[in-house]
Design brief:
Blueprint (H helix, E strand, L loop, with lengths): L21 E14 L5 E8 L6 E8 L4 H14 L17 E11 L2 E9 L2 H4 L24 H7 L19
C-alpha cells in the first residue's frame, strides 16, 4: 500500500479553458496504436502547442470501408508534418515532427472542448512565421512573412494568449 500524507494547502483548483479556435503550429509528442470504438485500427497522436500547457489529440482512424477518405486524411497528415516515410509500421518516427492543425470547438457532455478539425498542408503553413519548407527534417524557425495578420502569425507560433511575447523582425521589415 502506498504511504502519503496529503496536504490540501498544496492543491489549487484549476479551470482549464479550451485552446482558442484557429491555426496552430504543433509538435507530435507521442503516438500510440489504437483500436477505436468503430472497430477500426489507427493512431492516437498527442500534439503539443508551443507556449500552451494544454495538449491536443488527433485520432487517425484507418477505415477499410472508406479507403479514399482514409488515404486523404493520411495524405494531409503526412504533408502537414513533412513525413516522407509513409510506412505506417514506422509510426514511432513521427514523434518530434512539427506541423500545423486547425483547432475547432465541439460540445462534449455539455462542455466546450478543443479538437483538431484537420491538418494544414505545408502550402497553407507558408503564410505563418517560422515556416521553412526547404528544411523539413530540422524544422528550423526561420522568419517568413507573406501578408498574414500579426494575430494569426502569433497564434500560429503558440503566442495567442501571451501578450508579452517578443518577436524580432529582420532589419528593414515593415507591414
Amino acid at each position: 500500500m502506498a504511504v502519503w500524507t496529503y496536504n490540501s494547502n498544496d492543491y489549487t483548483a484549476r479551470n482549464f479553458a479550451p485552446i482558442p479556435e484557429g491555426d496552430y503550429r504543433v509538435t507530435i509528442s507521442d503516438v500510440t496504436e489504437e483500436l477505436f470504438n468503430s472497430g477500426n485500427e489507427g493512431f492516437k497522436i498527442t500534439l503539443e502547442i508551443p507556449n500552451h500547457k494544454s495538449k491536443l489529440w488527433y485520432y487517425l482512424s484507418l477505415d477499410p470501408r472508406e479507403p479514399k477518405k482514409t488515404n486523404q486524411r493520411l495524405g494531409m497528415f503526412f504533408d502537414s508534418f513533412a513525413i516522407q516515410d509513409t510506412d505506417l509500421s514506422h509510426y514511432m518516427n513521427w514523434t518530434g515532427r512539427d506541423g500545423a492543425v486547425r483547432v475547432r470547438h465541439k460540445q462534449y457532455n455539455g462542455e466546450v472542448k478543443a479538437g483538431v478539425a484537420f491538418c494544414l498542408s505545408r502550402i497553407q503553413q507558408q503564410k505563418f512565421i517560422g515556416f521553412n519548407s526547404s528544411n523539413t527534417d530540422q524544422q528550423s524557425m526561420n522568419f517568413n512573412h507573406s501578408g498574414s495578420s500579426c494575430e494569426q502569425q502569433n497564434r500560429f507560433n503558440g503566442f495567442s494568449n501571451h501578450p508579452t511575447a517578443h518577436i524580432e523582425f529582420p532589419e528593414g521589415f515593415s507591414f
